[in-house]
Amino acid sequence: MKTAGDIIKGKPLYFVESGSSVLDAAKLMAEKNIGAVLVLSKDGKFLGIFSERDLLKRVIAKGLNPADIKIDDVMTHEVMIAFENESYEECLAKMKKAQIRHLPVVDKNNNLLGMLSLRDLMDISLDEKTEKIELLLITISDVNFIEITFFKE
Question: What pLDDT, on a 0 to 100 scale, did the predictor assign at position 144?
Answer without folding.
Answer: 57
